[in-house]
Amino acid sequence: MSTTRRLTMAQALILYLSKQYVSRDGQENPFFAGVWGIFGHGNVAGVGQALQQFRDEIRYYQSRNEQAQVHAAVAYAKHKNRMQTFACTSSIGPGATNMVTGAALATVNRIPVLLLPGDIFAERIQAPVLQQIEWEHSQDISANDAFKPVSRYWDRLYRPEQLITSLPEAMRVLTSPADTGAVTLALPQDVQTEAYDYPAAMFEKRVWSIQRNRADSSQLAQAARWIQSASQPIIVAGGGVHYSESHQALRDFVEKTGVPIGETQAGKGSLNYDHPLNLGAIGATGTEGANILAREADLVIGIGTRYSDFTSASKTAFQNPNVRFININVMEFDAYKHSALPLVGDARATLEELFSLVGDYSVDADYRARATAYNKSWDAEVHRIYNLEHDPMLSQGEAIGMVNSQSRPQDVVLCAAGSLPGDLHKLWRTRDTRGYHLEYGYSCMGYEIAGGMGVAMADPDREVYVMVGDGSFLMMHTEIVTMVQEGIKLTIIILDNHGFASIGGLSKSVGSDGFGTKYRFRDEAAEELIGENIPIDFAKNCESLGAYVIKAATREAFSAALEEAKTIKNRPVCIVTETDRRERVGGYESWWDVSVAEVSDNPDVQQARKEYEESKQKEQHYL
Asked: Which architecture does CATH list for 4-209?
């Protein structure tokens, strides 16, 4: 029996990917669900040929935009709790750099995705080739060097045998709970097609074990003592709760100790919305109760959170002068933030050990009652916003309420950027741990539709509701065609508010009156974009791409559209409705640091700067 197998580098790569598995808690599955790709001269003869040759081993999916295919892969991996993902291939030049945004998004959010951009010729004889970026100070550079700062692992393979050492390193990073993100292997187009006698063992099934690392025992004991001495503790539940599947451990801990939780965007759904100790969203887009108790807390227990500025309200959320932090995180970098007592380990394993160490500790009955009261009062506020009966157009809050009320508990709402994430964070009533999917680490416009497709592929038994503003829709919506091609069903709700409503509101808050944020014709006399609204027909746009389209101008029509959408199978549905950008959901005991011009001849800017400087004084340095 031969100990080697002669394959091109691209063939060896694709065959290797098809043999990689992961296992955790006795559950095993293939790590790669397939390969997304758009072919060009930089990958068609290499990776493209290999995907055709091994099409029975791993499935190829055709996308319409290279950035979108990465978003779809990331959303899929996020919904799968990082236990499965895709590889994404592109040609050189613009095909490759289109994926850079997706790489940054994956790395910021700690989501695994493998990127395989084509590259220039390793032999260099033909240089400069089509789409090559030349640099007069080095021959060893291409557009793919742009992936370096946004990748957790990066390599360029100049020889086919380099694959033997590079691929295990790529898999090490992709399957790491702490070190994961985008992995980029730049593939020179000539090397992709070169053959080599690879070890046959390289193509045997390999299972990567996802471990539940334990925190240091002495630090666990110290954490238990801190908890036992706390009078007003609060938990900040982040994405690590989901990725470690520690929902039951968290619930047990909360119910035993009475410590209430606030949820980050990534952590929303850690507990159901109606659990009496769930304060809901926390931080700059948080609820009143979560932000009040955060401000007063003498102990903050962060679970799987990286404390983004939205979570910490730009370091103003925790105001108690004696506040201390305990951070449970698989990533040492995040565990040490805010000068915390770091519990570096798996969230579920750590919570289970803490559960036994805190003994019979429980918060004071009055404190528990306060948290419960805040939960109830917030639900009443959500009910009010859901039922504004705003006329004539829907408010955004009402639209969220109708989707929430008419969807099933197990269904998924998905969003990424604009004003919708903040409103969803506050208003969406989570009834299932997988029912809320927000990409807010990178807040990437254009993620929504491609990401929704990824979730629908990951979990076809759930209905997926993508809520997207008109601004984000216009940036990237062509994966509707891919869903038509693949027979994928999801419901896309396009909220037409005639521009960039979120930044319009932010512009007003800094004194600039929404400048440059509305979709208006240019007024030639004033030489500004202050004319009538541009009449964009989103319904016709979606229809032309093959979607089933419903226009809804009223509350009643929108409700009927949601019910009609449920009857459509194997095809994306687009519901288009106009919303009033002036009717906004307010802030609740929170702040977000966005710098305001220090000098201006505009009185509104001057006033905004004064208020900014006052708020800035509340920012804390946790030493």
From this structure: 3-Layer(aba) Sandwich (3.40)
> Helix or strand or coil: residue 353?
helix
Q: Report how far residue 623's alpha carbon sits from residue 608's, in angstroms, rounded to the nearest whole number.
A: 30
- CB within 8 A of 460, min separation 6: which ones? 488, 489
At residue 362, the 3 state secondary structure works out as coil
Dist. CA 189–CA 61, nearest whole Å: 21
Which pTM was predicted? 0.96
CB of 553 closer than 8 Å to CB of 487: no
Cβ contact 84:73 at 8 Å? no
> Pairing relation of β-strands 233-237 and 299-303?
parallel
The C-alpha torsion from 124 through 42 and 102 to 21, rounded to 10°, is: -100
Cis peptide before 233 (omega within 30 of 0): no
Contact of 259 with 393, CB cutoff 8 Å: no
CA distances from 436 to 237, 249, 315, 470 (A): 14, 20, 25, 21
Per DSSP (E only), the strands in 182-232 are 182-188, 195-199, 206-209
The encoded tokens of residue 503 equal 């930044």
pLDDT one-digit tens code per residue, 424-458: 999 999 999 999 999 999 999 999 999 999 999 99
pLDDT at 379: 98
Q: Residue 615 is encoded by which pair of tokens?
A: 């708020």
H or E element that contains 103 = helix 100-108
Q: How confident is the model at residue 226 (pLDDT cuts 50, 70, 90)?
A: very high
First to last CA, the chain: 63
Residue where the block lists tokens 């669900």: 33
For residue 63, the 8-state DSSP code is: -
Instruction: Look at the domain 217-377 and name its fold.
Output: Rossmann fold (3.40.50)
Write out pLDDT tens, residues 180-201. Answer: 999 999 999 999 999 999 999 9
The confidence score (pLDDT) of residue 522 equals 86
Q: What is the pLDDT of residue 623?
A: 66
Round to whole Å and give the CA distance between 99 and 86. 13
Phi and psi at 199, nearest 5°, equal -60, 130
Q: List, by residue range, all CATH 3.40.50.970 domains of the chain.
A: 4-209, 387-498+534-578
**SS3 for 167?**
helix
CATH number of this structure's domain 387-498+534-578, picked from the four choices 3.40.50.970, 2.30.42.10, 1.20.1300.10, 3.55.50.30: 3.40.50.970
The CA-atom distances, in angstroms, between 95 and each of 38, 66, 140, 409 are: 8, 6, 20, 39
Distance CA 222, CA 230 (A): 13
Q: Is 108 left (phi over 0), alpha (psi -120 to 50) or beta?
A: alpha
Q: Where in the chain is the domain with CATH 3.40.50.1220?
A: 217-377
Give the CA angle between residues 450, 454, 455 to the nearest 5°.
Answer: 120
The side-by-side arrangement of strands in the sheet containing 20-24 is 27-30, 20-24, 206-209
Place of tokens 């009533």: 429
